[in-house]
Amino acid sequence: MVGGGQGAFIGAVHRIASRIDDRFELVAGALSSTAEKAAASAKELGIAPDRSYADFREMAKAEAAREDGIEAVSIVTPNHMHADPAIAFLEAGIHVICDKPLTVSMEEAERVRAAVEASSAKFVLTHNYTGYPLIRQARQMIERGDLGTIRVIQARYAQDWLAEAPEEDNKQAAWRTDPKRAGGGGAIGDIGTHALNLATFVTGLEPEALLADLESFVPGRAVDDNAHILLRMKGGAKGMLWASQVAVGKENGLTLGVFGDKGGIEWDQENPNYLTFTRFGEPRQIITRGGAGLGGGAGDWTRVPPGHPEGYLEGFANVYTDAADLIRGKGDGALLPGIDAGLEGMWFIEACIESSRNGGTWVKR
Amino acid sequence: MVGGGQGAFIGAVHRIASRIDDRFELVAGALSSTAEKAAASAKELGIAPDRSYADFREMAKAEAAREDGIEAVSIVTPNHMHADPAIAFLEAGIHVICDKPLTVSMEEAERVRAAVEASSAKFVLTHNYTGYPLIRQARQMIERGDLGTIRVIQARYAQDWLAEAPEEDNKQAAWRTDPKRAGGGGAIGDIGTHALNLATFVTGLEPEALLADLESFVPGRAVDDNAHILLRMKGGAKGMLWASQVAVGKENGLTLGVFGDKGGIEWDQENPNYLTFTRFGEPRQIITRGGAGLGGGAGDWTRVPPGHPEGYLEGFANVYTDAADLIRGKGDGALLPGIDAGLEGMWFIEACIESSRNGGTWVKR
Amino acid sequence: MVGGGQGAFIGAVHRIASRIDDRFELVAGALSSTAEKAAASAKELGIAPDRSYADFREMAKAEAAREDGIEAVSIVTPNHMHADPAIAFLEAGIHVICDKPLTVSMEEAERVRAAVEASSAKFVLTHNYTGYPLIRQARQMIERGDLGTIRVIQARYAQDWLAEAPEEDNKQAAWRTDPKRAGGGGAIGDIGTHALNLATFVTGLEPEALLADLESFVPGRAVDDNAHILLRMKGGAKGMLWASQVAVGKENGLTLGVFGDKGGIEWDQENPNYLTFTRFGEPRQIITRGGAGLGGGAGDWTRVPPGHPEGYLEGFANVYTDAADLIRGKGDGALLPGIDAGLEGMWFIEACIESSRNGGTWVKR
Amino acid sequence: MVGGGQGAFIGAVHRIASRIDDRFELVAGALSSTAEKAAASAKELGIAPDRSYADFREMAKAEAAREDGIEAVSIVTPNHMHADPAIAFLEAGIHVICDKPLTVSMEEAERVRAAVEASSAKFVLTHNYTGYPLIRQARQMIERGDLGTIRVIQARYAQDWLAEAPEEDNKQAAWRTDPKRAGGGGAIGDIGTHALNLATFVTGLEPEALLADLESFVPGRAVDDNAHILLRMKGGAKGMLWASQVAVGKENGLTLGVFGDKGGIEWDQENPNYLTFTRFGEPRQIITRGGAGLGGGAGDWTRVPPGHPEGYLEGFANVYTDAADLIRGKGDGALLPGIDAGLEGMWFIEACIESSRNGGTWVKR
């Protein structure tokens, strides 16, 4: 693991997610760029001192050289520290599981892409919401035509935790609102990319053009905290995407609606064990995770019977477990977001910024 | 009543709405442009034969001349038949309660405005969703600052009844998808105007500019059936508005979210007796119509205790009852949509069409 | 109308309900037992002075004698004033629409039954919740076997308005907690009878025995404010019924669940435009009022398209409109609660009291 | 681990739950009473062959003798195989984490109690629903008086998976409907005990008496599949408890409502990240897991920020993590169900059976 030392948030999430299905063991880490903190964090997590590194390059090199070196690394640092470690491990032939967004710039993203292409190692980007069983089932349903031709996509990711300028010592808020560490995007990078990825993952459609109206509502904020985005997808579907960190009353309101000429679905991340599905002219159905009727699909990625809720960590674990399968040569990783999803996200961030700077104009891909 | 004869939909709604609080009596009508149908409809509704007219102009003249002539007229015809009757009755000094949208063109709308200004009679536009008690309470709450400065508006009006080309004999669908009778707007006129009106009514903010991406998804349709709209409001708030008649699974999905720097609200027309309200940093509250806590406001426009649901017809009745008060000189009609709301709606329709024709560009008001 | 003068609650509800479909006109009344108040109330409601009576017996006699006398009377007095007026009007050959519960004792109830049997006039008991379109549809669905053999009934009617001793001047609370005016039952009579009636109306099953554990939680209260009841239905189904006026957080929480060997339904009065329906082994469906699929039934008793919510008043209006049909000889009134429902309700109240007095034992019907 | 071999359900759940917070390692097991299956299961789970036992007694003895022997054992066998292993490990001084219900008879239960009292080892019963963060917070809220004096408890646990006679080869259904392996209770033992435990855990109240009306709706079933239960709690609160395995449309519908003289709460296991809380006379609040306002409590037992749902496995993991703390001498285990909860559950099962056999009479504790 690179990053994820004391005080970090997403590192702990990755560790639980990797552990749930017992497919990974944490044996080495460069958990912090501060040597002392790296060592202390490693000790807490039961990593042997000789496999706790102060520097990710050293770790890539040393682990690649060991007989019992790590097979895969998780990169859970702030955005500006994704590209270099990813490239270092890919070059060392170690599989990379990297947090999103891919990088802080398209230029960096292209460098990672080149490294992925040159390496024998796999690259997985943890767009974890794709791991929710009913999201995967929705993708299946659309693939097999249950919704007909897709016409409209409605995606939202609304939070309120940045509705006011955060306390000075809020580490999570600090780097996310700092363009140097987060990249030029605020809400669009941190959560907008998730919403876009969810939409493209489920529908199988790619964006053709977008138009964005970004805003920084909180005085003094250097990045956007609210984004209104129109999408035009290849093939003719249209979309709306709202990403906000200032929507008071919203905790982690990631929702997706997809509407085709034969059917429609709606899903809400805060209550992810239900999928609303309507065939045109029939009553609305509530599909459950592995439940009756259309429930087959989701049941493939679930651990407990329907009615026993699974959540964020189990969805995240599905990404890790699929990554383990991919590394072990089992399955084709078709459901795993990788470098393409990363590049799409980087295009999204940069196109949003460009569009908004021009007063809200269309930007083609 | 003008329009609302046999086979009509909204006329019957107006009649119930006007009757609920026992403030109106239906005594005269030009219920159809077909004389026979007008007479037959009048008979069914208990209108005396001598007060059933085949022509609205004749009706305006005759009723204005009678000692016991009508005090107010409801105009419930398709959109292209709003302007002329409205002007005729206003000129005859008879109060006008007119269905929305105001007219089929800004030019017609201006003629109505001139007639309103020249007349001693009142003009009410039945943007009936403003009559929902909790919508009025939301307006009060925003007015008194419960949400702080408004930042974001999210409005949706999604239906699916036009997801396929309707049967030939669907009278309601026929005129709504015919530009001659509905005006150039499809979804934007029929439901988009309601969503915009709801947003401006509740927030007290006016649109400064909009950008629209309209689409006619159903082959052969002459007007839009799906609209993605970005809004910029005077004062700096931003909005998104989705109007759709092809969103499979949606029946009458009119929802509103308003987010300020101190609080946020959400409301859903399909379950209108609840309002979600969050003060930043406090738990979400479920406000009920006349219920505990902040419930005072809505209780002023309600007939039964909280927990006993009121619906669409009662909301509509509130507009009628307020109109009766206004006519009787009681109250200032501050909550009643009138000619200004009508003109705003016409601007909205025309600006959407212009924006979309230009490929999706900003149109200022 | 008998009762329903100034300060009354349910009288106004009856008046709106009777007006919504324009099938009744209010022309006479004995609106209060206080002559002055009766006259003032009548004036407010537009009743001619000569048809405002201070006494219901006088009204029955006078109206029966008039050529243009009333055809039907609504009795909306407190419970202890139901029997005598009902009998007086039935004897005068005037149809009776009476609020529930039927009376304050089985002895009175039997007197009303005798009067109904002896009279040519019709008798309707306003168990208004049976008027909700989806409740009627649920009954149809069960009748035609969609749920199979019914096994379990779960009925709840939970409120909180009597969670504390009410203010002295709360007229509604005062008579409802006074055994002389309400009868021996508190929650069981006021709301428990509604829950039982809803269950028997929807399932078509009759109670065979019950067991009740009644409680008066609020100090000094003379009647029950919380009731836990077990039901055994003829044919083998079992039920639970909870009626409470002290369930903090509940406004008018009347819910019904019915479960058979082939399917199950759930319904909530506070959001009555949806019915959850599951066929065993299939996904849950959300049936809407007149909506797609199974929605046919409810559409027969509805005024606006699905997605436009109807509520308490429209459900109540359905009972009045059916009563008008019955009086006019149209339809067989099969959906109208009448004297049998009234007697069943009285048995319920008395059996609950008996069971609870005996420490919670089974009482057969 | 004892039990939990191939084809078992709850064993895998225990393994994930124990792993989530990285506090346990699985190193030994008697995973099946069939030697071959035990060995194969152990291999699959990475247990060394010399620590895979065919017999739990042998395992208790051998592990107690090892320097690196297990500190704790999880017993995840069918109910009739709880008592003997629990006693064997307790006698060997090894901590026991045992699935519920405690045993199949009170006599067995008392034997376990004696072993717990005689042993230095700890005993934890996995009434896992007590691990849900908001359930623990609800307990805190009631303890500190937020609801005032508790008056009414409404508990339900409704499923539909046994609505028909299950397929022959459904291992989970087979033992649960076999009195020899499940004990005399069907629904009451498998899920009713959970509902009771949840109610007593949250309120801190103990049952004083109960009355049960049990039914086996599915032909040929030897145990109850639907239970209607009335509760009287020490101190005067009253309760209703419904447990059903034949409620078509219900997956794992465990819900709890608690109503006091100052406030009320409601919670639903299928969407466990929300708690509805109402103070009398104030609007309903939606409390989230670690969210704003009253959210403090639940945040202590949660891994991700509010809005990121946690579910069944995380709740279960909280029980395991607390057990680890207890074993390590950290904390007092006050939130952990133990032998007392087990005995209460056994009384519940036996009292239900006795009450129902007597036709539905009160049984005191």
Automatic annotation (TrEMBL), chains A, B, C, D:
Pfam families to which the protein is assigned, alphabetical: GFO_IDH_MocA, GFO_IDH_MocA_C3
Domain of life of the native organism: Bacteria
Domain Gfo/Idh/MocA-like oxidoreductase N-terminal: from-to ranges: 7-124
SUPFAM superfamilies associated with the record: Glyceraldehyde-3-phosphate dehydrogenase-like, C-terminal domain, NAD(P)-binding Rossmann-fold domains
Gene3D superfamilies given in the database record: Dihydrodipicolinate Reductase, domain 2, NAD(P)-binding Rossmann-like Domain
InterPro entries: Gfo/Idh/MocA-like_OxRdtase_N, Gfo/Idh/MocA_oxidoreduct, GFO_IDH_MocA-like_dom, NAD(P)-bd_dom_sf
PANTHER family for this protein: CONSERVED EXPRESSED OXIDOREDUCTASE (EUROFUNG) (PTHR43708), OXIDOREDUCTASE (PTHR43708:SF3)
Protein's name in the database: Oxidoreductase
